[in-house]
DNA sequence: AAAGATAATGGACATCACGTTTAATATCTA
DNA sequence: TAGATATTAAACGTGATGTCCATTATCTTT
């Protein structure tokens, strides 16, 4: 644990010794390969170093254990998504979108495109054989992004009928559900189509989605 | 693995030797205690048998490994939920509800009440320290229940604008998100209130939830 | 290209949890 | 009570873990 910095991989990769870069790359590649072959729990440290062709002693010079490797590997993918979403989802953008009536803002295929780019990884890691911490982290991250959106939306003048963070976490869960469904059953849909399905569903509700008569939603929510 | 039948626990408990009943009860109780104390991965088999005061040899007479014990223990809780939902969610009931305009049917606190009854368990097992297979199983189970509802709803005469199984999986994910949020941040809400929040959110969509102008939803969905 | 610095290596090691086996003991059911 | 069956402690082999060290390979810098 003497060489393991806390900086994001790519950004400072140049500062690392070429040998260290090679080691880390090989280990992460090996883990990603293995994780789409069998469940994370079933992967042994020896599996990883064998696949990477790195000695076990070297592994411990870089990572604490296989969880540590997993988290730092996931961070790469996670950062990629974050950087794609960065700059898009902030209160200014939301208010601009609302002001101009730009629905496309809320119907953005970035998320689904990102998942499609890492389909094998997400399919496994979000599955029953997957990693609980990752599933939950993804949901929380999405919830946070959505919360920003909704706060911007509310700032734009509307008065929320339900707690914004409740809505955010609910929608984040919905998106994880949609993604999981997509990876397992919805292969015929493109990322663009998925984002449209998802937006329509969440924006207008299931009565509309199912073409059923909803009755009038209440003007105010009374929880008593 | 010679004594481990496939039947649900309670129903045939009487047929087991009293000693076997005692052993299994002790082991399941021990696991449930441990699982709310630390992550499932961190629980060792020795922890379980120590807590249960059962010898390790005996454990293996009943269960294959700790995963096996977990799944059979979870099945108790799972069956409890299933039996509560049984009879409520079938196409006849849905059609009756739609025909009589009974919104309460879709706004049923059973799920949230069940979660509240096992709050400690769900809080841990749905968390980052939790068990991926359980999170996914719960979501899939809820999706299946909802799918039945929606098929009944569509049978009742409406024409769906979005794929019913997509809607089901999305809503199931949303409910998991709502439950997780509730267990961590929404303690002030009762199960009844949660079911109301959830119904309103999912039934009428986030534009309504946030009190923002939605514009008109499209009459038909065009995915091209 | 050489020298000094640093990383990777294989191998050995103690440790731990696992899963199985045994003969003896405790507890059930009939 | 007797026979059947479940539980038990103890010991064992196995395989994965994490650490250490002396040696070798590879880098970076000059």
Report on this structure.
With 224 residues, chain A is an all-alpha fold. Helix content of chain A is 65%, strand content 0%. Chain A has eleven helices and no strands. The first copy, chain A, has helices at 9-12, 18-35, 45-52, 56-62, 66-85, 91-99, 110-117, 119-125, 132-155, 164-185, 191-209. In chain A, helix 6 (91-99) packs across helix 9 (132-155) and helix 7 crosses helix 11 (191-209). The longest helix of chain A has 24 residues, at 132-155. Mean pLDDT of chain A is 90; it is low at 1-13. The interface between A and B is large, with 70 and 70 residues. Chain A binds a DNA duplex (30 and 30 nucleotides) through residues 3, 17-20, 23, 44-46, 54-58, 60-61, 65.
The helix-and-strand class of chain A reads mainly alpha
Q: Which of globular, elongated, flat, extended, rod-shaped describes the shape of chain A?
A: elongated
Distance between the termini of chain A: 55 Å
Strand tally of chain A:
0
Following the backbone from N to C, one meets helices and strands of chain A in this order, namely HHHHHHHHHHH
**Beta-strand percentage of chain A?**
under 5%
Query: Helix segment count of chain A?
Result: 11
DSSP helix fraction of chain A: 55-70%
C-alpha-based Rg of chain A, rounded? 21 Å
> What does the average pLDDT of chain A come to?
90
**Greatest interface by residues involved:** A-B, 70 and 70 residues
Oligomeric state as shown: homodimer
Major sheet characteristics of chain A: none
């Amino acid at each position: 644990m003497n060489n393991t910095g806390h900086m994001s991989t790519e950004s400072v990769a140049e500062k690392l010794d070429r040998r260290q870069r090679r080691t880390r790359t090989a280990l992460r590649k090996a883990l990603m390969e293995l994780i789409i072959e069998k469940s994370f729990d079933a992967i042994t440290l020896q599996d990883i170093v064998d696949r990477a062709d790195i000695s076990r002693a070297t592994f411990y010079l870089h990572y604490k254990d296989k969880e540590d490797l997993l988290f730092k590997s996931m961070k790469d993918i996670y950062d990629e998504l974050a950087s794609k979403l960065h700059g898009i989802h902030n209160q200014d953008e939301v208010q601009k979108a609302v002001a101009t009536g730009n629905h496309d803002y809320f119907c953005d295929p970035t998320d689904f495109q990102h998942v499609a780019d890492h389909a094998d990884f997400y399919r496994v890691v979000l599955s029953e054989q997957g990693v609980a911490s990752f599933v939950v982290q993804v949901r929380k991250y999405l919830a946070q992004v959505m919360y920003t959106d909704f706060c911007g939306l509310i700032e734009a003048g509307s008065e929320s009928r339900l707690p914004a963070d409740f809505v955010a976490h609910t929608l984040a869960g919905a998106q994880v559900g949609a993604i999981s469904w997509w990876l397992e059953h919805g292969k015929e849909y493109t990322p663009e189509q998925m984002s449209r399905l998802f937006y329509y569903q969440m924006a207008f509700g299931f009565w509309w989605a199912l073409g059923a008569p909803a009755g009038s939603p209440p003007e105010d929510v009374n929880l008593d």
